Amino acid sequence: MDKPYDLFVIGGGINGCGIARDAAGRGLSVCLAEMEDLASATSSASTKLFHGGLRYLEYFEFKLVRHALQERETLLRAMPHISWPMRFVLPLSRDMRFDNSTPTSKILGTVMPWMKGRRPNWLIRLGLFLYDNLGGRQILPGTKSVSLDGTAEGAPLQDRFNKAYEYSDCWVEDARLVVLNARDAEMRGARILVRTKVVSAQREGDLWRIELEGKGADTIYARALVNAGGPWVADIVRNVARQNSSEGVRLVRGSHIVTRKLYDHDKCYFFQGTDGRIIFAIPYEGDYTLIGTTDAEHTADPREAECTPQERDYLLRFANAYFKQVLSAEDVVWTYSGVRPLYDDGAKSATAATRDYVLSLDDAGAPMLNVFGGKITTYRVLAQDAWAKLARFFPGAPGDWTAGVPLPGGNFPVDGVADLTQDLKVAYPFLGDRWAGRMIRAYGTEASDILGMAKSAEDLGRDFGATLTEAEVRWLMTHEYARKAADVVWRRSKLGLKLTPDQIAEVDAFMAVQQGDAT
């Protein structure tokens, strides 16, 4: 038997990769297996925000919101290439309503019944005051009132909106966040296996025996097992590890639509609906607007999640209640959908289900930690909390270390993107503004490692379109675990929005040849 790993992690989403990185940085030997591509499920289908969750205040989720608000700036400092501050415009209207299941709505319904479920402006301002102050904000600017009359913020909106509040949150490239955590874990000694499925895990003495399925798969032993399977976490407990558990997940589908750019400024919109829900409208990939998300119960295979026509039309109606431009299905250029594995706390609706995480430790023998729920914003804290559950099994390991430690490519100041982009354009004059900007936003200080000694675009090899070159694809295969075109154009980037099906097929064929998989 080969020497056992200290920790084996099932699942290559943000929680699994975050836990692997945290543990590897403490000196543990770590192996992680993901049955598909990294971030192939929930972690690449978010609304792409590091945010505190303003609406969760109505559910009195103060601990969750505080942790998330604290993390925004910690994470921003560690990854200024893939995360950046954004301002959110929240238009005010008498049509805004509570979800009538929230604790706040029930209290106001009792003490102020004449409001008839409306969200009063003073309550929104109170919520934003808490949002500004719960997390010890240092970098991000606070809330302010803005006029929508004759301003850039008001131009895309219907004339009935005259006033708004503007507050701060952060954008994040979610799938790249996952990959960079995996890379950092590997740089610290972890083994990362993609397209490798765990088919069984069973205790043998004080170890876990883990059977793998996939290219080069084998049998692995580990002292502790972490189940970070996301939507499959309950299935792994019952059918892979064959353990009894009363805990479960509630699968909630969140769908998004992408349209052509609806406005010219770089701020986002926070829209409140008459049904008590909220959606965002966010500048996306330079030429588009991202609108989402929905909350719908999901009972099918998580891999089959897709934005239904009903969800698409719901988002269009929601947006049409605010924008001057009337949107229809013909304006939608792409949709995506992911399944959130929320901890099943018995809430009546998908919207009301908790977004906080639960870590359940089974220590009847070799330890197994099951991860239920969580938010992308709190993944680093979740990883620390996971370690706190496991620490007694690994005495002598060092303390928490990840706060402020940059991810690969992120070792530059939060406000350094413009300077870094300019430096790249000087070093590689053939790039141009958009190409250089994309490279810095994706790779940060590692962009020059991809471009190497190139003096012209031709030196980067085959041009697949939309500034995607052979040199970049090779880098993604060598350093970022990419195996198929979808890994490159829909997760490591969103260039699939700008490439034709034939161009994407060409990328796939090239990658198959490089791996010896061409037929």
Automatic annotation (TrEMBL):
Residue span, FAD dependent oxidoreductase domain: 6-380
Q: Does the keyword Secreted apply?
A: no
- Highest taxon of source: Bacteria
Q: What is its EC number?
A: 1.1.5.3
Q: Which GO terms describe its molecular function?
A: glycerol-3-phosphate dehydrogenase (quinone) activity
Gene Ontology CC terms, in alphabetical order:
glycerol-3-phosphate dehydrogenase (FAD) complex
Which EC class does it fall in? oxidoreductase
Q: Where is the Alpha-glycerophosphate oxidase C-terminal domain?
A: 402-498
Family classification: Belongs to the FAD-dependent glycerol-3-phosphate dehydrogenase family.
Listed NCBIfam families: PRK12266.1, PRK13369.1
Q: What is this protein called?
A: Glycerol-3-phosphate dehydrogenase
Q: Which gene encodes it?
A: glpD
